[in-house]
Amino acid sequence: MEIAILAPVYNEEKYINDTIKGLKAITYNPDIFIVDDCSTDNTLNILKDIENINVISLKENKGKGNALQKGLETIIDRYDAIGFVDGDVGLTSREMEKLISPILERKADVTIAKFPPPKKKGGFGMVKKLSFYGIKFFTGKEIYSGLSGQRVFKTEVLKDFKTIPFGYGVEVGMTIDILRRGYNVIEIPVEMSHDETGRDIGGIKHRLKQFVHIGIILIRKIFER
């Protein structure tokens, strides 16, 4: 089975090198595709110096959903399974191996990484609650990691989507659509970590943007029913 890992990144100069190192350590030897969403820091220059990866450089920043869409347009017909990973997980990206195994063993159509509890206080749980209850409302299923960007799909699942949901609502929107179509989704506990946001102004703005994007996705789903 041919496997690819797709990582949309924006201004990840601090983590991207280690994230790629972790992906290269996966025993299944997936092909690695990095979609640079018009980074303004040194991310793209770092990527140019890394061997044995594929870089897709976008000319305009349009968000995570668009970056994933552009990446898939390039690779979807070439692989049997495709994983998504965020650029800020560092060396813990090696844990993606745990998500690949059930796909290869035909135990799941989609796997989602279930992270351990955060190491520092972040928000107040509103975004997670919106994700959990939004998914449950539309599908009847309880998915605790609906916000997780670390996933692996059988390619046939991804081909069922005409477009990827936009912005920070991408994971929740996709999870709802996948479950509605009857695919088998399982959550896999992993020892992964990412760049956690705190309760400062930047962190609050980030979570507010997440909340709004997810809310828009859920409202759109009402009219799709």
Automatic annotation (TrEMBL):
SUPFAM superfamilies on file: Nucleotide-diphospho-sugar transferases
Top-level taxon of the source organism: Bacteria
What are the residue boundaries of the Glycosyltransferase 2-like domain, all occurrences included? Answer: 5-159
By its UniProt entry, which Pfam families does this protein fall under? Glycos_transf_2
Annotated InterPro entries: Glyco_trans_2-like, Glycosyltransferase_2, Nucleotide-diphossugar_trans
Protein name in UniProt: Glycosyltransferase involved in cell wall biosynthesis
Organism listed in the record: Acetoanaerobium pronyense
What's the source species' lineage?
Answer: Bacteria, Bacillati, Bacillota, Clostridia, Peptostreptococcales
